[in-house]
Amino acid sequence: xxxxxxxITIAGGGLAGLALGIALxxxxxxxxxxxxxxxxxxxxxxxxxxxxxxxxxxxxxxDAALAPAHRPQQVRWWSGSHxxxxxxxxxxxxxxxxxxxxxxxxxxxxxxxxxxxENSRVAPxxxxxxxxxxxxxxxxxxxxxLKAHVRxxxxxxxxEMHLGSHGYVGLVAVEDGWVNVCGxxxxxxxxxxxxxxxxxxxxRHNGLEDLATRLHRVPWREHSESxxxxxxxxxxxxxxxxxxxxxxxxxxxPFTGNGMSMALExxxxxxxxxxxxARGEIDWDLSCxxxxxxxxxxxxxxxxxxxxxxxxxxxxxxxxxxxxLAQEQxxxxxxxxxxxxx
Length: 342
Ligand SMILES: Cc1cc2nc3c(=O)[nH]c(=O)nc-3n(C[C@H](O)[C@H](O)[C@H](O)COP(=O)(O)OP(=O)(O)OC[C@H]3O[C@@H](n4cnc5c(N)ncnc54)[C@H](O)[C@@H]3O)c2cc1C
Description:
alpha/beta
């Protein structure tokens, strides 16, 4: 006789929540997912996925959803208006808009029998079977993230990284000729009112005038401009009694392009304990403890290294040495790449 399984409730239908929902449905676990907004929607994200293995994508069952992604491998890097260097990532990344990806994943989850409640905001109240994948938590923080899609930019199949005085911005081609432009900047204390997009104001404030001029000349995708502020990077304060995954658990500095990979890896590592809980083999507390332990092992080192690297990237005293090291091709990119991904 088929065994009745307990339902898993997922709060937050971003990458962690949708991937987890799909993986659980594939092994027959009943899942209800609550998403505060509606699909499809633009999100602040560089949309550059780097680090997650093909095996993890296949084990979650979302490899086909990511198949249309561009596979950029070359990076071109500027500091202000100075071109610093060009290098090749040890393995190609994936680039696909969250507008497209989350929509495809939500359809896949529904097709597998998952229930989605859109426009449904859940409260973080611990309950057995409730998984918290609701993303960044409101907190006082010094950062603002800004993103838009533009077109008619020639990126030469590369990722462009532009380092500014108080932040950085990446450009990468996503689907249908659109280019994602997304940056993380220190919040400006105050700014004069302006009719231009906030992203351009921040680029100019960061000494990225050439890039702002380039972007000013090209078409911008309607409704794609988005902004987020009021969050902290690194490990997030724990929410007692809740199983938190993805950004709700920890936020890696975005220059790594590893945040979405971490959300997917976290979903993958949570599947076996959740499956055992749903079958009644272990209780909820043990399931949470197992996920916490595995997540700590998987993410602590890369979070700490990425935090140190971002500090150096943005430290005024390190800028000149950094530029010289980059121009002389003396930065250990491959080593940093692998250590910020495992
Ligand atoms: C400026 C910037 C650039 C970035 N660039 C990159 C990049 O290039 N590559 C990369 O890999 N990562 C990048 N990231 C990080 C990446 O976006 C996140 O790590 C990733 O989105 C985390 O996925 P998630 O599912 O945990 O959260 P999210 O994708 O944020 O999803 C959370 C979902 O929960 C919903 N929600 C919120 N509250 C509730 C509630 N109470 N009830 C129900 N639903 C709720 C939200 O609407 C949202 O859909 C960037 C981040 C920033 C800030």
